[in-house]
């Protein structure tokens, strides 16, 4: 729903095959086949158009939240032997409220002929957008090729047991039998952020904590002692709380060697580092920096870096350029983009070099100002600082005024 209160829905479809030779197809059909949509072309030359060994399948992306049996992702694939004789047009269908969609009209008015067709993914956009995309890819380096680690947030399998309020945490600590147990217990109860707590350049902690006994912890520490007897001895107060959820905890898939442990996960130590964190679904890029020791649940993702470039990366990921490129490859869910790791890690970002280091330092200084302002008052308007970062990012990609207008349109 937009600012005027009108509900608008969009769905990208790959809709029409057109022939560039004299043998125009007599009919074209888009039909569902094994959960996908495929074209069948009724013409005397159809055998030369379509590879008989594989269906000429078109994937489309749904943006209105409806399943419609469509494949995950946004790429289209169409296989044919005489590809040079045919081309494919695409259109993003738009619906206002519950009005009927006139596909033919929208295709005629806003349809785009796809020219950059590869065996991987097809880009839908104007030639100018295609050139800009290629320039971004030429200057930037995919995030996955940086010296970074990107992970999903923590999964407990039973949040009602393992994610607790500050009040419950204080109660558990107060009931520990001695100071040694209290210290042990305090060390494994970590502050945790949910996806909804993550904002743009700040976060709002809701006073929640996650109980983190990793898979393997009990067996590593118990020696020859019985596992349950050992855990009850070490964490008597904590286990009194967890025991009330024992039956449910034993039935969950996400558990460790014992029901009181969390699932096997090699990257628990990454939560103890400074990191960039973002929520999985957002209307705009909403990346922030989270200090060491704060965990986040599986409705948010995290990035850690071996280099001292967290602030630089956070700024790039919050930039208009990042949002533009992500819109080309990501999934628009209608109510925002789904910032999946598989898409985020493929965004080409400009590495810091001796020639652009001064720009990177300037960007980091602006991030410091934004973080300080948001920490003091989360409602502070930092748009001017963010705008300044956007212009510096444009310099990193050496964008022209025309290219900047494409991004900001």
Helix content: 25-40%
> How widely separated are the two ends?
20 Å
Which word captures the global form?
A: elongated
The portion of residues forming beta strands comes to 15-25%
Classification by helices and strands: alpha+beta
Mean pLDDT: 80
Regions with little confidence, pLDDT below 50 for 5+ residues: 1-16, 19-84
Number of strands: 20
Q: What is the makeup of the main sheet? A: 4 strands, antiparallel
Q: What is the overall number of helices?
A: 16
Q: Strand arrangement, largest sheet?
A: 5-1-6-7
- Rg, rounded, reads 26 Å
List the main descriptive attributes of the protein structure presented here.
alpha+beta; four-stranded antiparallel beta sheet; 20 strands; 34% helix; disordered N terminus
Structure notes:
The chain is an alpha+beta fold and 409 residues long. It contains 16 helices and 20 strands. The protein is elongated, with a radius of gyration of 26 Å. The protein has a four-stranded antiparallel β-sheet with strand order 5-1-6-7, covered by helices on one side. The protein has a four-stranded antiparallel β-sheet with strand order 9-17-13-15, covered by helices on one side. It has a four-stranded mixed β-sheet with strand order 10-12-11-16. The protein has helices at 46-49, 103-110, 127-139, 159-162, 166-174, 179-187, 217-221, 227-234, 236-243, 246-251, 310-317, 320-329, 341-344, 357-376, 383-396, 401-408; strands spanning 8-19, 27-33, 36-42, 57-58, 61-62, 86-96, 112-113, 141-142, 148-152, 163-165, 189-193, 208-211, 275-279, 281-282, 287-290, 295-296, 300-305, 331-332, 337-338, 348-349.
């Amino acid at each position: 729903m937009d600012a005027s209160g009108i509900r608008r829905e969009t769905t990208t479809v790959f809709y029409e095959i057109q022939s560039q030779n004299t043998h125009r197809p007599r009919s074209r059909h888009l039909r569902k086949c094994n959960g996908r949509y495929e074209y069948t072309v009724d013409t005397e030359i159809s055998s030369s158009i379509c590879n008989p060994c594989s269906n000429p399948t078109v994937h489309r992306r749904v943006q209105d939240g409806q399943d419609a049996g469509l494949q995950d992702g946004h790429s289209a694939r169409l296989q044919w032997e005489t590809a040079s004789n045919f081309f494919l047009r695409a259109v993003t269908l738009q619906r206002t409220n519950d009005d009927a969609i006139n596909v033919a009209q929208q295709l005629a008015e806003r349809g785009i002929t796809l020219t950059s067709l590869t065996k991987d993914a097809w880009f839908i956009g104007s030639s100018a957008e295609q050139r800009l995309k290629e320039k971004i890819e030429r200057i930037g380096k995919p995030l996955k090729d940086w010296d970074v680690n990107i992970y999903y947030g923590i999964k407990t399998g039973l949040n009602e047991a393992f994610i607790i309020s500050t009040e419950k945490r204080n109660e558990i600590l107060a009931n520990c039998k001695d100071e040694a147990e209290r210290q042990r217990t305090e060390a494994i109860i970590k502050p945790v952020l949910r996806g909804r707590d993550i904002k743009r350049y700040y976060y709002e902690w809701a006073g929640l904590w996650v109980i983190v006994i990793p898979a393997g912890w009990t067996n590593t520490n118990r020696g020859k002692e019985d596992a349950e007897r050992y855990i009850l001895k070490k964490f008597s107060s904590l286990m009194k709380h967890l025991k009330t959820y024992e039956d449910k905890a034993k039935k969950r898939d996400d558990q460790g060697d014992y029901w009181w442990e969390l699932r096997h996960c090699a990257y628990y130590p990454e939560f103890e580092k400074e990191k960039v964190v973002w929520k999985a679904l957002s209307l705009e890029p909403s990346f922030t920096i989270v200090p060491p020791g704060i965990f986040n649940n599986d409705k948010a993702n995290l990035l850690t870096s071996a280099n001292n470039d967290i602030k630089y990366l956070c700024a790039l990921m919050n930039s208009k350029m990042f949002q533009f490129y992500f819109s080309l490859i990501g999934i628009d869910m209608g109510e925002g983009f789904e910032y999946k790791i598989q898409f985020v890690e493929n965004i080409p970002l400009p590495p810091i070099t001796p020639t652009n280091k001064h720009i990177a330092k300037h960007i980091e200084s602006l991030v410091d100002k934004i973080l300080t302002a948001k920490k003091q008052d989360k409602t502070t308007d930092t748009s001017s600082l963010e705008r300044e970062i956007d212009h510096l990012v444009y310099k990193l990609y050496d964008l022209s005024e025309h290219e900047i207008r494409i991004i900001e349109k």
